[in-house]
C-alpha cells in the first residue's frame, strides 16, 4: 500500500531501515568511506534516551551524527527540552453529605492547573531563538494524566497529576525544574506543599550551529536529492540529539513525514520517502570528510 506500518514507533523503525539500506548501498557500490560509519540502533528513546546514553558511554569518538527521526524532510538543528513530572495534591476526605467537613484535593489542584497554563504562556512569550520561534508553541507544557477520588459520594483527599514540561533552548534543566516548582508553590500558597517529582523522560534542550560544516553538508545532500533546499528548523520535542551535543558531537535530524501520526493507531511511513531518505544518507556518507 506504499507505506511501512508498525505497531508503535513506525517512524523510528523506518529510520533503522533507512540506515541499513544506505550502508548496504555504500558497500554494494564498493565505496570506502573516509572513516568509520556506525549505525546505532538503540532502545529507550522515549524513556530519556537510555540506549543512546549507554552506547555513548562505551564509545563517543564520533565526528558527527545524523538522526533519521521524522522531520518532514526539514533539517533540524535545535530541539527543545522535555521533562516529565508528577505531583500529589492532598486534602481531607469526608462524605459528600457533609462536604464542608472535608477539603477536596480537586479544588486544591485547580489553581495549580491554571498556574501551569499561565507558566506555559510566560515561557513562550517573546521567544528569540531563530529556529524555535518558527513554531506556534515552541515549548509546550501539558498535563497528560489526572487521577482523583474513589467514590462519587466522597470528598477526595488525594489527586495525582502527571505532565510534561517544555524547556527552552539555552535554559538549564535545573533552572526549568526550579521555575516550575516555584509556580506550583505560589499556586498552593499557605496550603500543604506539593513537591514535584521528576520521573520518566528527562530531555535537556540542545542545538547545533546551522553554519557548522556537518549541517551544511547534510543540507547540500538533501538539496540534491529533493531538488530543493530543505528548511532548517528546530523541533518542540526532546530527542537523543542532546546526548551527542553534550559530548561536543555535531548532530542534526533529518527524516520522513510522519510526526503528525506518531504514536497513533495507524502510524506509518511512506515507502517512497524511506528510499529518498536512504539516498540522502548515502550522499552524506560519500561526501563526509571530503
Based on Cα principal axes, name the global outline: elongated
Radius of gyration equals 23 Å
- Count of beta strands: 13
The SS-based structural class is alpha+beta
Strand content: 15-25%
Q: Major β-sheet, in short?
A: 4 strands, antiparallel
What is the compact description of this entry?
This protein has 290 residues and is α+β, with helices and mostly antiparallel strands. The chain has helices spanning 10-28, 50-58, 105-123, 173-188, 213-226, 241-245, 271-287; strands at 3-5, 65-67, 75-79, 81-90, 94-95, 141-148, 154-155, 158-167, 197-203, 206-207, 232-235, 251-253, 268-270.
Task: Describe this structure as you would to a colleague.
The protein is an alpha+beta fold and 290 residues long. The protein has helices at 10-28, 50-58, 105-123, 173-188, 213-226, 241-245, 271-287; strands at residues 3-5, 65-67, 75-79, 81-90, 94-95, 141-148, 154-155, 158-167, 197-203, 206-207, 232-235, 251-253, 268-270. α1 (10-28) packs across α7 and α3 (105-123) packs across α4. The radius of gyration is 23 Å and the shape is elongated. Mean pLDDT is 92; it is low at 3-8.
Amino acid at each position: 500500500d506504499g507505506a511501512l506500518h508498525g505497531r508503535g514507533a513506525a517512524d523510528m523503525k523506518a529510520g533503522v531501515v533507512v540506515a541499513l539500506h544506505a550502508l548496504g548501498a555504500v558497500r554494494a557500490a564498493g565505496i570506502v568511506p573516509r572513516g568509520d560509519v556506525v549505525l546505532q540502533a538503540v532502545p529507550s528513546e522515549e524513556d530519556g534516551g537510555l540506549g543512546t546514553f549507554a552506547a555513548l558511554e562505551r564509545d563517543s569518538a564520533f565526528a558527527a551524527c545524523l538522526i533519521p527521526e521524522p522531520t518532514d524532510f526539514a533539517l533540524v538543528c535545535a530541539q527543545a527540552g522535555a521533562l516529565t513530572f508528577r505531583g500529589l495534591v492532598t486534602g481531607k476526605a469526608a462524605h459528600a453529605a457533609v462536604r464542608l467537613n472535608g477539603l477536596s484535593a480537586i479544588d486544591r489542584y485547580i489553581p495549580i492547573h491554571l498556574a501551569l497554563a499561565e507558566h506555559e504562556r510566560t515561557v513562550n512569550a517573546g521567544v528569540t531563538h531563530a529556529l524555535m520561534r518558527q513554531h506556534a508553541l515552541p515549548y509546550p507544557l501539558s498535563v497528560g494524566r489526572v487521577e482523583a477520588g474513589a467514590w462519587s459520594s466522597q470528598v477526595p483527599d488525594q489527586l495525582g497529576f502527571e505532565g510534561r514540561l517544555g524547556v527552552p533552548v539555552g535554559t538549564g534543566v535545573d533552572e526549568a525544574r526550579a521555575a516550575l516548582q516555584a509556580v506550583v508553590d505560589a499556586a498552593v500558597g499557605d496550603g500543604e506543599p506539593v513537591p514535584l517529582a521528576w520521573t520518566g523522560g528527562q530531555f535537556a534542550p540542545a542545538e547545533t550551529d546551522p553554519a557548522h560544516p556537518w549541517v551544511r553538508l547534510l543540507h547540500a545532500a538533501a538539496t540534491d536529492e529533493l531538488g530543493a533546499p530543505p528548511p532548517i528548523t528546530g523541533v518542540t520535542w526532546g530527542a537523543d540529539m542532546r546526548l551527542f551535543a553534550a559530548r561536543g558531537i555535531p548532530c542534526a535530524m533529518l527524516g520522513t513525514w510522519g510526526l503528525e501520526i506518531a504514536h497513533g493507531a495507524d502510524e506509518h511511513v511512506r515507502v517512497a520517502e524511506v528510499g529518498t531518505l536512504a539516498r540522502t544518507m548515502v550522499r552524506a556518507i560519500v561526501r563526509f570528510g571530503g
